[in-house]
Predict the 3D structure of the following.
Amino acid sequence: SILASYAKHHTCISIITQNNKGLSCARNNGLDAARGTYILFVDSDDVVAPSLVQRCVEAFQKHNSEMLLFNHATFETSDGNLIQRTKNLKNGPTGITDFLNIATSLKSDTWYPVCWYAFRKYFLDKYNLRFYEGILHEDILFTPTALNFAKELTIVPEVLYHYRKRPGSITTDPQKAAQSLKDHWFIAHQLY
């Protein structure tokens, strides 16, 4: 009902209703329905800066990159303290090889979450970049695949995304450890 009230007053909002088939399926349906120029993903339990969309659009208009990465911070649900994750990345466009050299020197989980990137829609459509359905950690497969096809990435240094780390999430649930390991193995094989 909240979404319907927004959609009633804003014609740019479309509501897609489906049975729960997982995150990848929801994202893919959103990608297929999207009509805009740029694509951005936000996880339901995270918080974004009010200027996120504006800064992404400005960066895309200034540079020809197919993708951009914005700085982000992690916060624990219990104390609310922010811990900045991506540091010392230069502002502006960079080649993918240069970025991957920087990324490999960062903590392993500071560059692959898809929610820390924005994309030109034509780029995702041109290479039919979609999320593999039925696995956990689908962005570990999606992001490197997208980077493989991109020629350039623009880095926006401001912290524009706040990732909530909480007990019971997909990344912290011990009940999903076996599935997580199996899916990591599958993803490694797919990337290879």
